[in-house]
Amino acid sequence: MSDLLGVAVLGAGHMGADHIRRLDRVVSGARVVAVADPDTARAKEAAAGVDGVTVHADTEAALDAHGVQAVFVASPGPAHEEALLAAFARGLPVLCEKPMVPDPAGALRVVEAEARLGRRLAQIGFMRRYDSEYARLKALLDSGRLGRPLMLHCTHRNVSSPPGFTSAMLMDSSVSHEIDAARWLLGEELTAVRVVRPRPSGGAPAGLADPQFVLFETEGGALVDVEVFVNCGFGYQVRCEAVCEAGSARIGEDHGVRVAHAGADTTGIPQDYLVRFADAYDREVQAWVDATRHGRVTGPSAWDGYAASVAAEAGVRSLETGQRVTVEPGEPPALYRA
Amino acid sequence: MSDLLGVAVLGAGHMGADHIRRLDRVVSGARVVAVADPDTARAKEAAAGVDGVTVHADTEAALDAHGVQAVFVASPGPAHEEALLAAFARGLPVLCEKPMVPDPAGALRVVEAEARLGRRLAQIGFMRRYDSEYARLKALLDSGRLGRPLMLHCTHRNVSSPPGFTSAMLMDSSVSHEIDAARWLLGEELTAVRVVRPRPSGGAPAGLADPQFVLFETEGGALVDVEVFVNCGFGYQVRCEAVCEAGSARIGEDHGVRVAHAGADTTGIPQDYLVRFADAYDREVQAWVDATRHGRVTGPSAWDGYAASVAAEAGVRSLETGQRVTVEPGEPPALYRA
Amino acid sequence: MSDLLGVAVLGAGHMGADHIRRLDRVVSGARVVAVADPDTARAKEAAAGVDGVTVHADTEAALDAHGVQAVFVASPGPAHEEALLAAFARGLPVLCEKPMVPDPAGALRVVEAEARLGRRLAQIGFMRRYDSEYARLKALLDSGRLGRPLMLHCTHRNVSSPPGFTSAMLMDSSVSHEIDAARWLLGEELTAVRVVRPRPSGGAPAGLADPQFVLFETEGGALVDVEVFVNCGFGYQVRCEAVCEAGSARIGEDHGVRVAHAGADTTGIPQDYLVRFADAYDREVQAWVDATRHGRVTGPSAWDGYAASVAAEAGVRSLETGQRVTVEPGEPPALYRA
Amino acid sequence: MSDLLGVAVLGAGHMGADHIRRLDRVVSGARVVAVADPDTARAKEAAAGVDGVTVHADTEAALDAHGVQAVFVASPGPAHEEALLAAFARGLPVLCEKPMVPDPAGALRVVEAEARLGRRLAQIGFMRRYDSEYARLKALLDSGRLGRPLMLHCTHRNVSSPPGFTSAMLMDSSVSHEIDAARWLLGEELTAVRVVRPRPSGGAPAGLADPQFVLFETEGGALVDVEVFVNCGFGYQVRCEAVCEAGSARIGEDHGVRVAHAGADTTGIPQDYLVRFADAYDREVQAWVDATRHGRVTGPSAWDGYAASVAAEAGVRSLETGQRVTVEPGEPPALYRA
């Protein structure tokens, strides 16, 4: 594949800037061709260093910029409906950050507009579906190995909430991730919800109902409980335990899927290095490409390669003789010293 | 950045093919312009789908192909010396898989050739330095928070060894990773080695000295022990515990750095979602770019966005009223029914 | 202390027999002097081997038996009220298995009777207060180090329920442990409860509401949720996470208290061997006492002591010389050959 | 069983005093009838509160005291040989703390004396054999489920060493535990040892070779490596990993046996409450016996029993009605208010 996908990014705030960096430097196959933000100074800053990008104050102008083939909506929630409809009008595929549209009426208008088009253009940014642990939990539940899921126990904790965070936003902004994850993991729609408020934490701003405890019911009779606590103070924790008829599986603790089943509490062990070190390989090669494009050489050097070879050969001799063998690489040439 | 780095990949075996895929589809900023392998059928297969690539039986021809700006050496070890020297002769930067050159004499010739150039062109594929756990362990040791390292206890286990694996290859091929990791983590050269053979496992091929127990000494008096066991049968495990004057840190178990220090056994908790879900974001956006370039739409749909919005709004009403509230998104349009 | 406490045990079923064994062989300072059970054959079997014990069909007779100084009530719940009142009438201290009295009216009569005595005679068998993890969690909460507790997330799972287990018994018999633990850990009374039924597990007997999800509120506004699942199939799990204003602490997983606090997930490390191996010392000495009383000698032998001494001395020589030193204990005398 | 075993305890230092307490208050079936220590003040202090005990300066006098049926040797190592021979001369069973006799020649004299008796009288205090984790590891190895053991990786760490601790004592006093554990776990004699010294820790006293790394070989070709580090600073850690032909098992981390086998990393889950809470039951009943013998009543009260019953009944009503039900125990009588 050689042509890069031309993307317009709407919104150049914290998330938008991070996605611009990602499209430009991490992800293969795309390039950012337009950035829009009412605050054009912010847009310019986020677009700095991106080759051939244009900057706009206005959504429509960005969508109509030269080379735009797809849209990434990273603007604040209230601006999403207009952006999605504008993309639909142009037939442009969209990746839209969550919440798709904060109010259900507006969200329904987006659904109806896309349904009228008769084909899907929008992907919504529920990125947990792309997390490796969630993906493995989903596969495990779908396999039926643990029987039907009966309950999901979820935890969603943040160190502290940003200024202006309201009691409703614990639901809108935080629990909405668990809402999507529960629908996806269980393959069932939610049918009822009940929120219980424990006493508010002294660590939360006055007036904020934090933590909250939320209980969802599903069409099939499963139960989803969510502790949401956005001023827990100690860390960011997203955990999920699926309690099934024949076992329970947990994610979100030490990065792995731990399964309790048939008398054992178990985590998988990878079976080869491509699994265990897949990220390391990606990072290694990306680092090499980045350095090379800047005319630099970094990383392990030929001296490192040589030194390893000397030590390994000494090891083989010790293996053969049973003796202690000295390792003598000599002095490195000046090129390799610090 | 817009111009993609043109890479010639030498070797189209298991590793080579994986690196071609990585350069083409995962890593940002590079493209594969030439592939060389004496087995050109294999080279063609590995290059299939890569736009504008040329395929060669011969290393020199590949390096001289149009657009080659850098070289990725993924051929068998004995071919590395020639490939590195050929790249040096053309002034091309190289990423060379380990072992750089299997025999120390050849490795030294590479070092000397690069030293004569007076600038570094080669990076060696000791990819553990790019693993996030190793990187965090290195940073922790460098911080001095645990005092000086005194010992490294290393484990390197494979499920089973490939055909033709020899007793010497446990050192050359497997322990060479620990050799580089130890030199890098400790910042010290190795000075002696001693290999002890426990009784061979009944699970290893007859005649193979597996497992082996290897003890390295460093110039500063640290001790590095390595259990290498390439037919352990149960999984791929790479662990490392650094025992320091004021604490010990372990990696390779459940993906995290566990630190024993001052009466506590501790793992870190990420402090925000960008840390915890960085990979998920990368994967999400890559999946979107890939699908969009193929004219497909996948992932969470607008209906998912709408359903989340309906459930969240019901949650807010329950929060406000203290009552159970039903969640009623209605029926999805046909477009969204699987 | 020399005089042993004379105990009458009421009830010789599964629990009663286990407590008789415990009083006779494990616990220091007590002896069983009377056992009562309507099924006297069962009582005799449970009392077998206990020196000087008398067996009775009737509670009153057992309480009046020679040497009775205290009472252990291990009969079925419905018999507890009468047993407690009979013990109170005689001024005998009682340890009464839970539930103290299954119906609240009867329980209140026991409370009123003891209040009329003006002094406490009864201890109720909520043995979780004596579990080392619960005790450490209680101490941690009382220390205030994590701020006020806001929520307790509890799990109570059994492999399978015994025949005749009813939906109400998940509350009466199982959750009653969490009820006491919550009151004790929080130091607050419970003020409301709500039970939600997820779909029943296919692994539970037809008609049994299993699992159940129970939400308690406390007088101070804390929330206690309990998953009770008595046919989970995979094991016996009792977990409790206390979510506090400044941290969370969990017990019931791999035997330890894991604390999330200030960016770290932490378990304690014991500071000396008396802590780590306290149970081993107790078991060692008990095993020796038991064997000696039966005229037997078991455990590590003098030969083991000698062999250790030979190996240690060889180690010291290797330490001093830096050489490999052989360990040569010679052949053990016939006495020590198994 | 009614007659208590009369024990003479030799040595009233730290260990001796702890064993006197254990025999008197923890272990069932024994009583301390004599205590000997050259420092009779210390002996008196350790014996305080033990009913009917006599105190002696002299070993022989203690062994000949009235009621002595068995001997517990807890004096310093150099005094053990004489104590053991004196016990043998009287035909008294002995539990002797490790090291049995520090020097191999003396140890052999003890072995020969017992062999002449033709029956075993001595049990040596290698108490790790009584640790539940070691016991489970031993059972696992003996089961053959993981194939033959090939290597033991052992760690033995103390926070800090006591004054006067010498380099040789890391072997004599610390590693002697691993020596016995390895012989017992593997069922093989040790045949050679090699000690390697890493650079000494700055946290160790000047001149002390701490840490040390010890490699034992066994008659069957297994390898046992031991890191001994008596000034590690952060905690007391005793770990052991048995690497076998078909799996590896570890103990000493978070109190459990973790097994890596067939693609999974597994710990057991207890199958019932008697396993999970065995210690809690023992502690509960011991606490009740102790309090009762002192005329006190402690632990959960009748009010606690009543309150649990009220809450459970409310739970049952909520289960039946699906409604929130208030829990109203009323006010406790004065007797139960702290």
From TrEMBL, chains A, B, C, D:
Instruction: List residues of the Gfo/Idh/MocA-like oxidoreductase N-terminal domain.
Output: 6-121
Q: Which residues form the GFO/IDH/MocA-like oxidoreductase domain?
A: 134-249
Which EC number(s) does the record attach to this protein? 1.1.1.18
Q: What class of enzyme is it?
A: oxidoreductase
| Catalysed reaction, written as an equation | myo-inositol + NAD(+) = scyllo-inosose + NADH + H(+)
Q: Does the keyword NAD apply?
A: yes
Enumerate the Pfam families for this protein: GFO_IDH_MocA, GFO_IDH_MocA_C3
Q: Which UniProt keywords apply?
A: NAD, Oxidoreductase
Could you tell me which Gene3D superfamilies the record lists for this protein?
Dihydrodipicolinate Reductase, domain 2, NAD(P)-binding Rossmann-like Domain
Q: Does the keyword NAD apply?
A: yes
The protein's assembly and partners: Homotetramer.
Q: Which family does the entry's similarity section mention?
A: Belongs to the Gfo/Idh/MocA family.
Question: In UniProt terms, what function does this protein have?
Answer: Involved in the oxidation of myo-inositol (MI) to 2-keto-myo-inositol (2KMI or 2-inosose).
Write down what this protein is called: Inositol 2-dehydrogenase
Species this chain originates from = Streptomyces thermocoprophilus
